[in-house]
Amino acid sequence: MTLLRQRMIEDMRIRNYSPNTVKIYIHCVASFAKYSGTSPDFLEQEHIRDYQRYLVEERKVSWSLFNQNVCALRFLYRTTLDKDWMIKNIPYPKGEKKLPVVLSPKELSSFFAAIKNIKHRTAFQTMYGLGMRLSEALGLRVSDIDGKRKVVRISKCKSKRDRYVPLSESLLDILRDYWRTYRPSKWLFQGKNPENQLTQRTIQTVCRPACKRAGLSKRVTTHTMRHCFATHLLESGVDLRTIQILLGHRSLKTTAIYLHVARNSFGAPECELDLLGAIENKQKQS
Questions:
Q1: What is the pTM assigned to this prediction?
Q2: For residue 213, which of 27, 75, 114, 203 is within the disulfide window of CB 3.0 to 4.6 Å?
């Protein structure tokens, strides 16, 4: 490991960056160094500009990947190399404003039914039932589930702030059945080694085959479960501020995107937090 790489890692750890962010930033800087053929501390403004052109015009990377590279290089030159004057030559790109994909309750029911592995299906139902990110779901410990108070403690949050979310009766029953099958001791979704969490890759690879079996044409990812949670709550009459708290968003502006995807409701709909229960009822009626 080079001294520059080690120092950048230390700088990020000192600032309490998540392990995933550290991994991404280091990979971005390593790719920049490989393309340029030399260490970044010897490169100038024109090298950065040429690399950004290469990402956009030749590799045609997505906005999110391009933005990750920008953030990584800005951190490298501003913090690790103390070359603040370089920052003005690493501009942020204009972001794309894409609306999230949302499944209907019937589509979600079909999607869950298409996942035959109980552990994998329970992981997706948990992400939907609690509005969790994948990393948050896989970071759940058995001790985080409070069946008596019917709440779940979510740590390992993107915002570095723990939060509690209500646990519906339907999801509690699903988790109890799951626990009786697998008997997890530490991590709720443990890997082959009980001391390790199930990997994100394992869950991510479930999406495409499940969509195909369920006959869904929409592109579903693990994050779709979180989008569905927020949208369905909004459609059920839950106010935006409550949804913001449940999702753990710092800004209400972030949560407001669901106003653009929620279908219009008529009258005063009854608030329904037991989303999984609602899906099961619809399935029984069909």
A1: 0.75
A2: 114
Answer for the pair 61, 55: CB distance below 8 angstroms, yes or no: yes
- Give the chain's mean pLDDT: 90
Of 61, 89, 117, the one marking the end of a domain is 89
Q: Is 258 tagged catalytic? A: yes
* Domain of 158, in residue numbers: 105-285
In-domain check, residue 94? no
Q: Residue for token digits 């991404």?
A: 24
158 is catalytic: yes
Would you call 232 a catalytic residue per the annotation?
Answer: no
Same domain, 81 and 123: no
Do 170 and 281 sit in the same domain of this protein? yes
**33-58 pLDDT tens trace:** 999 999 998 888 889 999 999 999 99
Which one of 25, 51, 77, 258 is the catalytic residue?
258
The single residue of 223, 227, 260, 263 carrying the catalytic annotation is: 223
Residue 221 and residue 124 in contact, taking contact as beta carbons nearer than 8 Å: no
Catalytic residue, candidates 74, 121, 226, 227: 226
Residues 71 and 113 in one domain: no
CB-CB neighbours of 84 under 10 Å:
11
CA distance 167 to 18: 27
Whether 160 sits among the annotated catalytic residues: the reply is no
- Exposure string of 120-146, with b = 16+ CB inside 10 Å and e = fewer, is bbbbbbbbbbbbbbbbbbbbbbeebbe
Catalytic residue among 119, 133, 227, 232: 133
Which of 83, 120, 156, 158 does the annotation list as catalytic? 158
The pLDDT tens digits for 99-133 are 899 999 999 999 999 999 999 999 999 999 999 99
227 in active site: no
Is residue 114 classed exposed, middle or buried when 0-12, 13-18 and 19+ CB atoms within 10 A define those classes?
Answer: middle
- Encode 25-45: b = buried (16+ Cβ within 10 Å), e = exposed: bbebbeebbeebeeebeebee
Q: Is 263 in the active site? A: no
